[in-house]
Structures are given as C-alpha cells and as structure tokens.
Amino acid sequence: xxxxxxxxxxxxxxxxxxxxxxxxxxxxxxxxxxxxxxxxxxxxxxxxxxxxxxxxxxxxxxxxxxxxxxxxxxxxxxxxxxxxxxxxxxxxxxxxxxxxxxxxxxxxxxxxxxxxxxxxxxxxxxxxxxxxxxxxxxxxxxxxxxxxxxxxxxxxxxxxxxxxxxxxxxxxxxxxxxxxxxxxxxxxxxxxxxxxxxxxxxxxxxxxxxxxxxxxxxxxxxxx
Length: 224
Ligand code: URA
Prior knowledge:
Elements: H1 2-11, H2 38-45, E1 64-65, E2 71-75, H3 80-85, H4 92-103, E3 112-115, H5 129-146, E4 150-154, H6 155-163, H7 169-172, E5 177-179, E6 182-187, H8 190-195, H9 200-213
Parallel strand pairs: 2-3, 2-4, 4-6
Antiparallel strand pairs: 1-3, 5-6
The structure holds uracil.
Residues 75-79, 82, 88-89, 91, 93-94, 115, 191 line the site of uracil.
C-alpha cells in the first residue's frame, strides 16, 4: 500500500525516488486554487449556486471540528436535520456517529466531520453525477488542508467516491485503503447501522483498526 511505502521511506529519511514518490495528500486537490485554511475555502464556496441542489437547501453544510484533526470522518450528504442546522451528522445517524467518536475517546471537536456533498439532496435522494462533480473538489481540498493521519469514510457513497471504486462497501470495509498517501478506512454508514444493528460489530472492528493506527488506547473500550 502506498501510504505504508511512504511511511517507511520517510522513516528512513528518503524523500526522493527516481521513479517518483508515491502520491501525497498535496496531489489530492482538484480546486483551481489551493487554499491555506478551511475558512478561506469556505469563503470561496460562498453562497454556492454551482449546482441545482442550492435551490432547495437552507444551509450549506461545510464541516465541523478540529482543523488540525488526526482523523476526518466523511459522510455522504446532509439530511433534513443537517440542512436545518448547518452542521453535519446532527440527526439520528449523527447521534450514533457521536457515540462512536466518544467510544474512541474523542469528542466531536477533536476530529473533523464533513460530507462529500455540501447541500441536502431533495427527499434524501442519491446525489447526481453532475452534483458530485461540482462538490467533490471541496471535500478533497478540505482533506488536503487538514492533512489528517487517517480518514474514515462512512458508507458506500463516500467510500466509493473518495477511492474512485465501484466495489461494494461490504468488501471495501475492514482494511485500510490509500487516499493520496493517507490511510482511509471505509465502514458502514451510521444510517445503515440504525437499520441493521448487527453491523455495529463490524464497524467497531473497523474503528479499532483506526484507533490502533492512531495509537489510541483500546483496552478500556474493548467491551463497548
Ligand atoms: N448522513 C450523512 O451522510 N451526512 C450527514 O451529515 C447526515 C447524515
């Protein structure tokens, strides 16, 4: 995996290879300009009218949390509660995500939480390809600015979009994948867990791998 190769090369002091180094998060951006801070990127998005989702939205749901987070959670798109409040993952699924974050020993303010799509699709329909094309550069730029040590992609939409993959979430989850040199763990979306509580066990296995990677203590949460 590229991120392991890169970590190894850096650990032995190598930052140049004749054939080129593995891709880094700096290459993950698609925006015409690179922004120094999340606020500068948010200012650029402004009162976005780039796609038809802007017509019915109440708030652009940009993202919340620590701009220097070691861990970023990326979901799909805001739902009704998020559109009302302007904050990602504040509805029922969000409450479950908050519990997962607490079980890791974090608060919401320690990590960063955002979505691939920043405006609510009507009736929670899947985002359309043109909407993804317009909005995806912003999540990529958020990840480039934050440069987390790990990313957790929630559900098939976020995982497949970031990894440019069509593989099912049930096969993607459970192992790290490379996102421009950053280890990315796909796992089930909290909304899926609300409908399928048995899958919580799998998510906890995925989360434990993330905790291990981030050197977070596991033992006190083992029985959660
Ligand atoms: N589902 C998502 O993918 N994101 C949110 O912010 C809320 C629900």
